[in-house]
Model the fold of this input.
Amino acid sequence: MGETPQQIVSILAVEDDPGDFGLIRAYARLAKLGITGNRECVTRAKTLSEGIAAARNNKPAVVLLDLSLPDSEGLATVQAMRAALPGVPIVVLTGRDDNALAVAALQAGAQDYLVKGQFDHDALGRTVRYALVRHHMELQRKESEKMLLDSRDHLKEQVGKMTYQLKELKGGVNTAKGLSGPNAPPVTDKEGSGQDSKRDSTMNINMRNQPELSQRQHQILKLLQAGKVNKEVAQELGIGLGTVKQHLVAIFKKLNVSNRAMAASHGMEIFHEQENRGTALPMADLLECRPCVVLSIALPQDASHAAAKLMYGSLAALASAHDAVFLARNGNAGDIIFGIQRVTEYDLAIALQTARAVYDDLLAMEAQMAKTGEAETGIAEELRGCMTAGVAFASMKRFGGWTGEAIASAAIASARELLNGVPPGQFVFDQTALDLIELFGIGGTQGVSPTMFFQELQKLHWTGSRRAYHLVGRVAELAQLYAALTEAAKGGGKLIFVEGEMGMGKSRLCDAIAKLCLKHDGRVAFCRSLPPVLGKCLYDTVSGTECSAEQVAASLRVKPACFPELIVVDDFHLLAKEQQILLSAAGADATRNGKLVIFSGRRGMRENAGHPTEANKIETISLRRLSAQAIQVLVRDALGKGAIKGRASKVQRITSAASGVPLFAVELARHHEAEQLALPLRVAINARLDSLHLDHNLLREVAKNAVGANLEEVAAALGENIEVLRQQMERAIAAGVLSCNEDGWLSFTHPLLRRAIDNVVVE
Done:
């Protein structure tokens, strides 16, 4: 007798142990869950990231989820899978027979819980079928609640119409525009009095000022208000006492309070504000696929307790300072994940800085021990480390920033596996990390090699010199700079701002005019601004040394030794406001002495710099997108002369996707065989998007349709107030991410931005 359709269940088993997976598959067959005819319905994923990807491609009926995976462990695994697959029931599998863990797993979103070695095929079949039934009942309940809410809203609308008609009969209906009569729209709360508008404005301001707590922190804050002590909180939520304490520290920091009573009092204001957010945007968490850099470091397992404690302390402190995620491991090892809170183009440089700092701390410890006569030496020489880059699945807040609830990444597993083969005293880069290093400007006296000794890391620093490609399509801009250089050769100084978005070729243009200046026997000073987190603010490419804004300003004011003299400050937008003002004033002084000064950076930097208003004419060169013909030149050059199948059509596709941005064209060509966006492009685009703090829900809805969407459709899809959402739309348009045509149709300003958003947010 054949199985009924109800008995056949498509199962995704996320299990790294092949033996356990074989047992699961056998039990599923015996329970008549996972096979129909000759087709196997139980599929396997070895890691959480593989499981999420597999589930997105072929949605299973149920997920059997191991809590201990190479790239994720514990309840964070459940939370990540729950966020990725909100419509699929999850049954947790674990080797721990722990009631508290079982309760916590259910609270995290699992439907049921099975202990490995303590269930047979009957138990598995029963658990899976019950989970499906409970999940179906939950969906029915939610649908009923939605119908009830819809009915209530319809009733409110009808009551509003009747109230309006009654007022109209009394002759007292006036709209906000001063109109009256049968065609006048009814007055609603949204279009009410000025006092109501002021109240709503105040509410939105208060909402923005409120600290952003994670879902778990909200739960703990509620229990604090109920008078629960730490032990009671841990028992009620099914989490460890240490976890409660860690959350309390985070809550106190976010609320800027020092004790439980103050936190509970502040929490009352937060919850009251949330209850009255009639027009506020909900802060639902999103599971995002984000580029990240993983630094793994370890000491030998027999290292002293003091050395291990110092290493762990240094890693934890440095991770906290850079908003990174620190994962301590047994065996004197630890990982730091950069880019989860916010992706930047210099995460690799910060990771290198962190590795050097840990090494330096161990050297200092050795020196101190030598002074006290202790025998232990060579601790730092035993340190080993590695760096990888990849993507991570992380639960993110709607406007950016990690919720602290879930994170998983195959890059973590790759880093740990790579670290196992690293000899003591050495540091290793994988190929993805080397690729990012080449693109984003980490260099040194001898460059970067895949394997280095820890002491050699001191030679590496962030110079801002990116991967070189030909300057094409900038004939008019280069001619304008050359005309200014010709005047400077006669003692006629000028201050020029070269502006453009990311990847438009600003640095290439500055390099080109610098070479022309040297060709005419001129003098060149070329500095690149550094991110403040790396220490000094500028890097002198000529001398190969770091310098301050004050030093550059002083050199600008020195009278020229010869003509022409050119001073370039690239990546000007990275400088602090006061540094920009200082250099702008010094640049104006330099032009009076006959120097040519060029400040290059992101769009809008001239306005941000508070430039001086002297009589000297200040020019601005804005770099626009290149023509298709110019982009094709870059694409063909990046593809090289090797044999590539379908080269002509590939050039056309890349040219269209790059849409006039040189950096995008080169990187798409370099990674033309990749199905997804290459990691360097992910980093470049995410770094820009993360800096803007835009509404990811809005961007996701617009990205779902290749031709765009209108705001009414987006508001309906999200179930949100259109006027509040309009504010977020205007922010995205002002940031240059979205555009809106005269018909109100929203689309991305660049196709790769849409593609990046579509790849980032996991449904």
Q: What stands out?
A: The first helix runs from residue 18 to 30. Residues 588 and 613 are 9 Å apart (CA to CA).
